[in-house]
Design brief:
- With about 280 residues, this protein is of the alpha+beta class.
- About 15% of the residues lie in helices and about 30% in strands.
- The protein has a 6-stranded mixed sheet with strand order 6-5-7-4-9-8, covered by helices on one side.
- Strand 1 and strand 2 form a beta hairpin.
- It is globular and about 55 Å long.
- About 40% of the residues are buried.
C-alpha cells in the first residue's frame, strides 16, 4: 500500500506508489495535505504579467525568445507566491498546457528537491495569444485568521485589480468548505450533450454564454452561494463580444483563466469549470 512520506514542510506529505522510487526526481503521484493549511488557487500563469490582459495587452509585447518568456513566466509565479506568503515548496499541484515553442516555468531550478503532483498536457495551442505554455497551480499557504474585510470572510484575492477580469490567485481559509461545478455549458444540467433529444443550442456564442452563466447562477443558488463565493473560474471556448460573467460578478475578481480552444462538447461553444468556497457547516 502506498504510504505518505514526510515532505520538506510539515503537513505536506508526498505519496509514492513504491518505496524504491522515493529517491527518483519524478513528480509525486499524490500529496496529502493536513487541515492546518489554507488553499491557494493560482490560475492563468503565463509569460503575461498578472496585470496584463492577453486579449488587450496595450503596449506590452511578449518576447520571441523562449528563454525570455520562460523567465517572465517564472517571475510571474514567484511574484504571486510571495504575495500570498507562500514559497515554491508550498506548490502541491501544477497543470500545464504546453504548445510547441517553449517558454515554460523553470520549476526544477526553483523547487530544489521538492516534487509536487504534476500534469503536463501537450497541445497545439494554449488558447492564449502568443503564450506557448499556460499553468493552473494549486498551492497551500500558512493559515491566517479570517480577513476582517472582504466580500466573503476566509476568501482573499491576491494581487487583484478591478480592471482585470480575474485575480492571479485566491487564498481560501481552511475554515471554508469547497464546492465544485464541472463542465457547465449552455445545455441544461438535466440534458446529456451527447444524447440531447429535442433540445437545440443556439449557434451564437454570446447567447450560449448567457445560458451558461444562467445555469451557473441556478447551481450556485441551489448550493446556498452567490457569485462572490467563486474562487476559481476556468473558461474554455470561443471569445465572445460580451461578458455576462463579469456583469454578474460585479467588483469581485476570482482566480481564473480563459482558453480560446474547442470545448470538445457537441455544439457547445463555451464551457466553465468553477470552484467555490462556502462557510463550513456544523
Amino acid at each position: 500500500m502506498a504510504q505518505a512520506t514526510p515532505g520538506t514542510i510539515k503537513g505536506i506529505d508526498p505519496i509514492f506508489p513504491r518505496p524504491e522510487v522515493t529517491e527518483r526526481l519524478a513528480f509525486a503521484p499524490g500529496i496529502r495535505v493536513s487541515s492546518d493549511w489554507d488553499v491557494l488557487y493560482i490560475s492563468g500563469i503565463s509569460a503575461y504579467p498578472p496585470d496584463v490582459d492577453p486579449w488587450n495587452p496595450g503596449a506590452f509585447t511578449l518576447p520571441a525568445d523562449p528563454a525570455a518568456r520562460g523567465k517572465m513566466a517564472t517571475d510571474n509565479l514567484d511574484r504571486v507566491l510571495t504575495a500570498a506568503g507562500a514559497t515554491w515548496e508550498h506548490i502541491i499541484m501544477q497543470v500545464s498546457y504546453a504548445a510547441p515553442g517553449g517558454g515554460g516555468v523553470d520549476f526544477r531550478a526553483k523547487m530544489g528537491d521538492w516534487r509536487p503532483c504534476s500534469t503536463s498536457l501537450r497541445v497545439n495551442d494554449t488558447g492564449i495569444p502568443g503564450a506557448n505554455v499556460l499553468y493552473q497551480i494549486t498551492a497551500v499557504a500558512p493559515r491566517r485568521p479570517p480577513a476582517a474585510k472582504g466580500t466573503v470572510p476566509g476568501v482573499e484575492p491576491i494581487l487583484s485589480r478591478p480592471e482585470m477580469m480575474f485575480a492571479p490567485a485566491v487564498k481560501v481559509g481552511s475554515s471554508m468548505d469547497l464546492v465544485y461545478f464541472s463542465s457547465i455549458t449552455a445545455y441544461p444540467v438535466d440534458v446529456d450533450p451527447w444524447n440531447a433529444g429535442n433540445f437545440k443550442l443556439p449557434d451564437d456564442v454570446d447567447a450560449q454564454e448567457k445560458m451558461v452563466v444562467d445555469n451557473l447562477e441556478r447551481m450556485l443558488k441551489a448550493a446556498g452561494l452567490g457569485w462572490q463565493h467563486t474562487v476559481l473560474v476556468a473558461r474554455t471556448g470561443e471569445v465572445g463580444r460580451t461578458n455576462h460573467l463579469r456583469d454578474r460578478m460585479g467588483t469581485w475578481r476570482p482566480a481564473g483563466t480563459r482558453r480560446a480552444v474547442s470545448t470538445g462538447v457537441p455544439g457547445a461553444r463555451v464551457m466553465y469549470e468553477i470552484t467555490a468556497a462556502a462557510p463550513r457547516r456544523a
